[in-house]
Specification:
Elements (H helix, E strand, L loop, with lengths): L26 H10 L29 H11 L5 H11 L2 H18 L5 H19 L13 H29 L15 H13 L5 H23 L6 H9 L10 H18 L12 E5 L11 E4 L8 E5 L4 H4 L3 H8 L4 H6 L4 H5 L5 H17 L6 H25 L5 H11 L4 H13 L5 H21 L5 H9 L6 H18 L4
């Protein structure tokens, strides 16, 4: 059985983002009651960690906002049974009212001085325009309907007469009224109480209460470790790393021929290797398979490299959804991202056949879930899954990317960094392309604290394993360690460390050294 997903979990498996289950709110996992509810146009689950904060980021979110969630729900409607379709029609007739309400709330934010940063509003505008263009080409999901199905005409009319005009009106409001008055600050540092709000959001996402100075110190420490490892494995002096990063940022001549089909081939091969190796490292397997598919065109411009879509129910495969745009620059990290999102990463964790007690008490802690996926990237190296030195370098570069967030986020939300300064820092410390860096920095602006979960979670899991290995020596059993981490399900990181210590102590007592 798959562990049920919470509303917050729905967000997070997007490209290294957990932006998971493509959206387990509403249609995909919610059932009839959710379908009948009127739509709400706000920032979605990612707004929760900002509760009580004076910022319109609660209403405008590039990861889980309505403009991301609704197209996924729309695409699922035509495949539903007739009764659920009727409920969906009733629900989505309220689209215009929902978006007009959102505009009034955003106008109130402008008046109150809580406007979101312009970078966040600009990204949301682009996503709304993408959704508008997509529905202009036709109502979503029509391929699931027979040509003579009467629902086809009703669904098409709803989008032509109600939904598309409402999207256009909202986009016009953002462009002409909101963006000219959006916040000049690129983070919460320009918001009253912003640093405290950032601290609360970071603790919600990571389960750890760490001051900004400590976050930055951990980030710089991990960057130094990773830079030394990258220099060592690439055979260069650390002083030459800027040149190396620049070379790796630019696709090689042979990578320029990479297309979407090649990205798909690489992903499928990586998943197959990981699946074959699982029995040597884990005692349990996922309860459903994972497929590989390309991301819909309307999502590609503003989405990251990939996402994981959880299984919506028993027996239905999960999916690794890769972004086929800019394939040449995405080839370098294609394998590591596949391991992060599928096996031994998110898919193994989310779809694991857990004991009944863990399934009965589902939860979501980004520090655990994303920390596990980064741990899985490193574990894939230990498992011998990377196909060559360059793909292994892609893993180290992805870890540099994740570690840089621990410096960039406090910079934006506490230190008053500009967007340009954050972009420059990531350009110096990662091999991401300029386009990818801008998507990433805008994500950190829009969702304070979320990106910290990755490397902090990894660090806690890595250190828990190292401690267990020191305690047990040759008696350390990696399968048993993975059971101790995974089987209880998502939980705060301090609890994970305590569980691993308890397991190690019990293992030491039951099998004394000789």
């Amino acid at each position: 059985m798959r562990r049920p997903a919470s509303a917050l979990a729905a967000l997070l498996f997007r490209g290294g983002l957990l932006c998971a289950g493509l959206l387990c709110a509403g249609l995909l996992c919610g059932g009839g009651a959710a379908l009948a509810a009127a739509p709400v146009a706000d920032g979605g689950p990612a707004a929760g960690p900002l509760a009580g904060c004076g910022t319109d980021l609660r209403l405008l979110n590039t990861l889980t906002g309505w403009q991301v969630a609704w197209p996924e729900e729309w695409a699922a409607v035509p495949a539903l049974d007739p009764a659920a379709r009727a409920e969906a029609l009733a629900r989505w007739r309220g689209t215009g009212d929902a978006l007009r309400t959102a505009q009034e709330r955003l106008r109130a934010g402008l008046a109150a001085g809580t406007a979101a940063p312009a970078a966040a509003a600009r990204r949301v505008l682009a996503q709304v325009r993408d959704a508008e263009e997509a529905v202009a080409r036709g109502a979503p999901g029509l391929a699931a309907l027979a040509p003579d199905d009467p629902f086809r005409a009703e669904w098409t009319a709803l989008f032509a007469g109600t939904i598309r005009p409402a999207l256009a009106a909202f986009a016009g409001f953002l462009e002409r009224e909101y963006l000219p008055r959006a916040s000049l600050s690129d983070g919460l540092s320009g918001t009253p109480g912003g640093p405290a709000c950032f601290a609360a959001a970071a603790e919600t996402w990571t389960s750890l209460a760490l001051p900004p100075d400590r976050l930055e110190a951990i980030g710089r420490e991990m960057l130094a470790e990773l830079r030394a490892e990258l220099a060592r494995t690439q055979g260069v002096a650390e002083a030459d790393l800027p040149r190396l990063l620049q070379e790796m940022r630019a696709p090689r001549p042979e990578d320029r021929a990479v297309d979407a089909a090649e990205l798909e081939r690489v992903a499928r091969a990586a998943v197959a290797r990981a699946e074959a190796a699982l029995p040597r490292w884990f005692s349990r397997r996922p309860s459903v398979p994972v497929t590989v598919e390309a991301m819909p065109a309307y999502m590609q411009p503003t989405a990251p490299a990939a996402l994981y879509r959880a299984s919506p129910g028993p027996g239905v495969p999960a999916a690794y959804v890769f972004n086929p745009s800019r394939p040449a620059e995405r080839r370098l990290m294609a394998e590591v991202i596949a391991f992060h999102e599928t096996l031994p990463g998110h898919h193994l964790d989310i779809a694991l056949d857990r004991p009944a007690a863990a399934r009965a008490t589902p939860g979501f802690v980004a520090g655990f879930t994303e920390g596990w996926a980064i741990y899985a990237e490193a574990l894939a190296d230990e498992m011998g899954l990377y196909s060559g030195p360059r793909d292994r370098a892609g893993m180290l570069l992805k870890h540099l990317w994740a570690a840089s967030r621990l410096v960039v986020e406090p910079g934006l939300h506490v230190r008053g960094w500009s967007r340009a300064r954050a972009v420059a820092f990531m350009r110096t410390n990662t091999a991401l392309s300029d386009a990818e860096i801008e998507v990433e920095v805008d994500r950190y602006i829009a969702t304070p604290g979320q990106s910290l979960a990755y490397m902090l979670g990894y660090r806690w899991l890595r250190d828990a394993r190292r401690d267990a290995e020191r305690r047990l020596g040759p008696r350390f059993d990696v399968k048993a360690f993975h059971d101790a981490v995974l089987l209880p399900g998502a939980r705060p990181l301090e609890r994970v460390a305590a569980d691993v210590r308890a397991w190690a102590e019990q293992a030491a007592a039951s099998s004394p050294a000789r």
